[in-house]
Write a structure and sequence with these properties.
The chain has 18 helices and 28 strands. By secondary structure, it is an alpha/beta fold. Strand 15, helix 9 and strand 16 form a beta-alpha-beta unit. Helix 7 packs across helix 18 and helix 8 crosses helix 9. It is elongated, with a radius of gyration of 26 Å. The two termini are about 45 Å apart.
Length: about 550
């Protein structure tokens, strides 16, 4: 008996996200059968949570750009926003006027399984992905991961055999993933058990200007909403899996925390990527000196994100969510240093803070030149003053929210958390920040440098300090103080000190190399590791 000939009919989705197939009827003598693949009944939503600045925002502020506050995938928006001065940035990125924007169009996937489909099929798929929230996140950065997960999580087997890239993953799992703790090989029984589920991939953008406890509660609500949606369609669905990038890890932890979102019972497991688990000293650097600029595209990115410290501070000091990226009380002490002379191993440090509490010792300091925030940069638009609000007091209010969030979150992790972070010498980050003098300074007595007067600040990481008791080698009572280049291995943003902090509190942790912070999920080994983690979680061994 000859095998029945078949032709593949693509899976489509109706307006409620239910999969179906359609085929044109033909004459009886045409014996080629339509072959349609329908997902398994049991649903585990996979929910991606982006990092700070990775969610699209709209705004009712007068300075909005065609209604948008933050839309990094829009050339029209970026071309205008990159020239916004601190005053306009402050007004536009006001947390209370911003909200999630989902108007972004879903781009085509640059892979054959997508491009080989007709335009009607592509349009149907993109409409479904938009329904799942993909348009709320920065797809130029996260789109490749979302498409990768959507396709491969739902095609673990083909024709009764383990499909690619799962075959290669199971053969080479662990190779190229760096130093691993808690690693156990994915076995075929686990993959088979995982394959008995449909994994619709969702994305949840959030208002990253607000405190992360608010974002966590919002995410918890979305988890409940997605589960309820699939149950209403008749699918067994009890729990979701979260995949996070950067600050999205803090949001996911908040969503699961019993005193914040309390959604842990609805989450099967969490995959954390490049999370600033205890903060990052890079945040202090950028508030003083702006974002790092390289060549070409990197320069344009820095102009959008904030070229100067004043650009960054106008948003940062007014946004609790941004302040929550600062090193917290669990970060290694003494990360802010002042050197009498020299850098690196030759530095002669005369000040090393905090001893215990960065909020009190650094962030609330208003007068010392090494303070976190320059008071005059908080309200460049005069908006707060016009509303009879003291800018410094408003900043302290936001700082209080940041501290309260950090204290509540503590070192909490969902019981099934799987972590990877960057520890690459080629992608160094500020694990500590050191200020050092340019040239030799003389007649230095205890307390003179740290108590010097700030004479000028170029907002790019160079200060002019003055003290009547100190002489520079030019015999002047003032000198330049600069910020040292980064020394910690990391991913260019999060230093190893913070990335490895979850160790001992999570099921699995990978110390990796080869990627920068924002592009981590575009790295093939990170994508493979993410598939591994999800399969382990869903396969029952989590």
């Amino acid at each position: 008996m000859s095998a029945v000939k078949t032709r593949i009919v693509p899976t489509l989705y109706d307006d409620k996200g239910r999969p179906y197939c359609k085929s044109i009827m033909s004459r009886t003598e045409n014996t080629v059968r339509a072959k349609c693949t329908i997902p398994p009944d049991h649903v585990i939503p996979v929910i991606f949570v982006p990092g700070i600045m990775g969610s699209n925002l709209k705004s009712t502020a007068k300075e909005n750009i065609e209604g948008l506050a933050w839309a990094p995938d829009s050339f029209t928006w970026a071309r205008k926003f990159m020239f916004y001065k601190p005053a306009k940035r402050q007004i536009l990125l006001n947390p209370s006027l911003a909200s999630i924007d989902d108007s972004s169009e879903i781009p085509n996937a640059e892979v054959s399984w997508f491009s080989d489909m007709g335009a009607d099929v592509q349009a149907n798929w993109k409409a479904e992905f938009k329904r799942r929230g993909w348009g709320t996140v920065m797809l130029s950065s996260y789109g490749p991961l979302l498409y990768h997960l959507e396709y491969h999580l739902n095609r673990m087997y083909q024709n009764g055999k383990v499909a690619e890239p799962w075959q290669a993953l199971m053969k080479d799992q662990g190779k190229g993933w760096g130093e691993l703790k808690g690693f156990a090989a994915l076995i075929e029984k686990e993959l088979l058990d995982a394959s008995d589920h449909w994994f619709p991939v969702h994305a949840v953008g959030y208002n990253w200007l607000e405190s992360n406890d608010q974002a966590g509660k919002y995410l918890a609500g979305k988890i409940e909403q997605f589960i309820a949606h699939y149950r209403k369609q008749g699918y067994p669905c009890d729990k979701a899996i979260l995949v996070t990038h950067s600050m999205g890890g803090l949001v996911a932890r908040a969503a699961c925390h019993p005193k914040i979102g309390n959604a842990a019972s609805k989450v099967l497991g969490v995959v954390h990527g490049v999370q600033p688990a205890t903060g990052a000293a890079t945040a202090y650097k950028r508030v003083h000196a702006g974002f790092e600029a390289g060549l070409g595209k990197d320069t344009l990115v820095a102009k959008v994100l904030g070229w100067t410290g004043a650009d960054v501070t106008a948003v940062f000091a007014n946004a609790p969510g941004a302040l929550q990226l600062l090193p917290n009380k669990l970060y290694p002490a003494g990360w802010l240093k002042v050197s009498r002379t020299g850098t690196g191993t030759k530095a002669q440090d005369i000040l090393s803070l905090p001893k215990a509490d960065p909020y009190q010792e650094i962030y609330r300091e208003k007068d010392k030149w090494w303070r976190l925030i320059q008071p005059e940069w908080i309200d460049p638009s005069g908006k707060l003053v016009n509303e009879s609000k003291d800018p410094w007091e408003r900043y302290l209010d936001n700082l209080d929210k940041a501290e309260q969030f950090h204290d509540t979150l503590g070192d909490y992790y969902h019981p099934s958390s799987w972590v990877h972070y960057g520890a690459d010498e080629d992608h160094r980050a500020w694990g500590h920040v050191r200020w050092y003098p340019i040239g030799e300074i003389r007649y230095v007595r205890d307390g003179e440098i740290e108590n010097a007067r700030l004479k000028a600040d170029n907002s790019l990481g160079r200060l002019v300090l003055e003290s009547s008791e100190i002489r520079h080698n030019t015999l002047t009572p003032w000198w330049n103080q600069e910020m040292e280049s980064p020394h910690s291995s990391g991913d260019g943003t999060v230093p190893e000190e913070s990335g490895r902090a979850p160790q001992g509190k999570v099921k699995f942790i990978a110390k990796m190399r080869g990627f920068d912070h924002q592009g981590s999920y575009q790295y093939a080994q990170v994508q493979a590791l993410t598939l591994y983690c999800i399969a382990k979680i869903a396969g029952g061994s989590a």
